[in-house]
Amino acid sequence: MSDIMEDPELYLLFRFSMDDVSFPVVSAAVNAMSNLIVNNTDETCLDLMLGMPQALHQPSFEIDLGMSESDIGELKDKELLKVDIIRGAIRTQLIDRISYIMCELRPEPLDIKHMLKCLTRIARHSAEAARQVVSCPGLLGAVHSLLMHSSGSTSYYPEALKFLRVLICRSSALADIIVNDHSVLGTIFTFIAGEVGAGHPELMHVTLESFYTWQSVLTYRMHTDSISSFTPVLMRFLEAHLGLTLATGSSGSDLEHAAAILSLLTPIARFGLLDLLRPLLPAVVQCTVKWLTQLLNADRILVNRIVAIIYPIKLKFCFIIIATFFNLVTNLQADWSSSVSYGSNSGRHQYRKFTVVTLLNTSV
């Protein structure tokens, strides 16, 4: 990226091509712009953190230029693009152009996905960049309409939900605009409940993003009563996971779905809203006890799954889970000590050692 941006003419070429009257040129420019400003490695790493403690605390990618705003304002476009491509993108009205393309030109699903990725990258830059995105006329409405009308489309646009989640995580003020002015939660609930998209290959991705977007809203203590109205659906999911999902043998998507449900409930528990959780608590306890017990005999342990599973231990009222947790740690420690005393260096025992350390650190 640094080598490419030594010549900001490349960005400007893509940006001006997005203004072209020929849509094939616009489509190619959108694709190129996404490849230029979006760091897919960063996005993959951040996505893998979902379900972990503090995963909704999104990092800022703002560059400290060591300059005052007035000095930055005096930089030419090319100079600004060299030192901060996202600031340069905002100055060259990339957000407005994306909004126009999405609202007026009826782009193809792949083009829409590229533009959503660009918007997500801009929103990650800083709080000010996120505010610029939200304040762009018509943009949030266009993004929400993608989700509302997705039943007649070839895509369900999980990228749209991710974009909204990143914005919501920025501040409660932005969350209020997205949730209350654009009624996003209602759309999210249709995806979680499985009312649309049965059998669609993107449905699981959309469902997971729906859970984490909902959790982001709950983190601000907004719309906490939505848990109560959705309790029957959550209960159905927990009962299914209790019967079918194994901590060490199920598919990754099943485990991610289970982790998303448990993560969703953590802000409600943190606020002490026990009346909302009481109907779900027995199923949560049973699932967690089952998965922790299965981990005791696991040959291979995925640490992110462990943390997602034991995170409800931090809910102060789950005494059964706490007791099971410490029994598990005690057994693992004893097993690890025994293996060490006999000089075993097998991979199984190394995983058990790692599990003990992870469990202890996570419970602090």
Task: Describe the SSE topology.
Layout: H1 9-17, H2 23-37, H3 40-48, H4 69-74, H5 77-83, H6 85-91, H7 94-104, H8 109-125, H9 127-135, H10 139-148, H11 158-170, H12 172-182, H13 184-192, H14 203-219, H15 226-229, H16 231-244, H17 252-270, H18 274-277, H19 281-295, H20 303-310, H21 319-341, H22 347-363
Helix pairs in contact: 1-2, 2-8, 5-6, 8-9, 8-11, 11-12, 11-14, 13-14, 14-17, 16-19, 19-21, 20-22, 21-22
InterPro entries: ARM-type_fold, RPAP1/Rba50
Overview of this structure, please?
There is one protein chain. Helix 20 packs parallel to helix 22 (347-363) and helix 21 (319-341) runs antiparallel to helix 22 (347-363). This protein has a domain at 1-169: Alpha Horseshoe (Leucine-rich Repeat Variant). The chain has helices at residues 9-17, 23-37, 40-48, 69-74, 77-83, 85-91, 94-104, 109-125, 127-135, 139-148, 158-170, 172-182, 184-192, 203-219, 226-229, 231-244, 252-270, 274-277, 281-295, 303-310, 319-341, 347-363. The protein starts with 8 loop residues before the first helix and ends with a helix. It is 70% helix and 0% strand. It is built from 22 helices and no strands. It has 364 residues and is an all-alpha fold. The model is unreliable at 315-320 and 340-364 (pLDDT under 50).
